[in-house]
Amino acid sequence: MTVSTPCISICTLDVSGRQCLGCGRTLAEIGAWSGMTEAERRAIMARLAGRPTAESDR
């Protein structure tokens, strides 16, 4: 089974150390990701569009 993920292999935290600059997820979301349902993952991925990432700085 394939697990949905927003990871783009740019695993770098922001200055506060709370959010990945690559995918935009928080450390709590990353830590809980493997235990989430597909629906929970998709809900978080839908919210990521509004979060700053290294890609959005380009």
Topology:
Blueprint: H1 27-32, H2 38-47
Helix content: 25-40%
Strand content bin: under 5%
Distance between the termini: 33 Å
Per DSSP E runs of 2 or more residues, the count of β-strands stands at 0
Helix-strand string: HH
Average predicted confidence as pLDDT: 89
Tell me the overall shape. Answer: globular
Question: What is the count of DSSP helices, taking H or I runs of 4+ residues?
Answer: 2
Instruction: List unreliable stretches of 5+ residues.
Output: none
Largest sheet: none
Rg (CA only): 11 Å
Which class of secondary structure composition applies to the elements? mainly alpha
Number of domains: 1
Word description of this protein:
- The chain has 58 residues and is mostly helical.
- The protein has two helices and no strands.
- It has one domain.
- It is 28% helix and 0% strand.
- The longest helix is centred in the last third of the chain and has 10 residues.
- 12% of the residues are buried.
Task: Write a brief caption for the model.
By secondary structure, the chain is mostly helical. The chain has helices at about 25-30, 40-45.
Keywords:
mainly alpha; 58 residues
